[in-house]
Amino acid sequence: MTLIGYISGAFSAVAAGLINALAGGGTLITFPVLMAVGLSPLSANVTNTVALVPGYLGGTFAQVDDLKDQKKRLWIFIPAGILGGLMGGILLLKTGEKLFADLVPYLILLASTLLAIQNPVRAWLTRRQEQGKAKVVSEFWAFIPVFLAAIYGGYFGAGLSVIVLAVLGLVLNDSLTRLNALKQGIAFATNVAAALFFVFSGKVNWTVALVMAVGALLGGALGGRLASRIKPATLRWIVVSIGFVVGMIYLVRSFIA
What we know:
Blueprint: H1 3-22, H2 27-36, H3 41-51, H4 53-62, H5 71-95, H6 97-116, H7 118-131, H8 143-155, H9 160-171, H10 176-199, H11 206-226, H12 232-256
Helix pairs in contact: 1-2, 1-11, 2-3, 3-10, 3-11, 4-10, 4-11, 5-8, 5-10, 6-12, 7-9, 8-9, 8-10, 9-10
């Protein structure tokens, strides 16, 4: 990669860290940038997963107070996230470069759609909680849907938080704040598991990953400072718009090629 490539990766990671801190969906910025500067789709996805782990760690620590009395749930769902992340990582590497490249436009469009429906999902969950509909006989059975969501997270990652939050809202009866904290812990476990698996894959561009990790941390810190000045909804729709445009460009290119 050229110097411009590294600079682009660093700035995209700063943007992703800021976006993740405020609205979510940072992968929709970093992943296309990594592909644009020369990484193959598979390498870009793997490198991106490894590079953005510090951002998930920061998000989890920010909500640790809401996790303190959910230890029983963590013992159930963190393993689900870890196993799902590993399974998703295995499926990704088994997919191969050619097939994954063909799937890229659809994955970007799916992730953009998930981010677009984030607010409606939250509103729906709030209504369910107010009506007392989100109940299960045993929380252990929620392991399966969380595990399935984590497989997607290990495979691609963008939009994972929306899926996990929706799953938790369906099977657990609790406040949105506590479910959001639990979701953050699951997403962190999923991404760490996938990232650790990718460490030994030979697909990680380590120089880029390290540069981006620093950028993601800086962006997350910046996002925390700007939280009161920037409307998350506005930022989210900017990211969604970029995601749909990029996804459609890749889709058109795949049909022309």
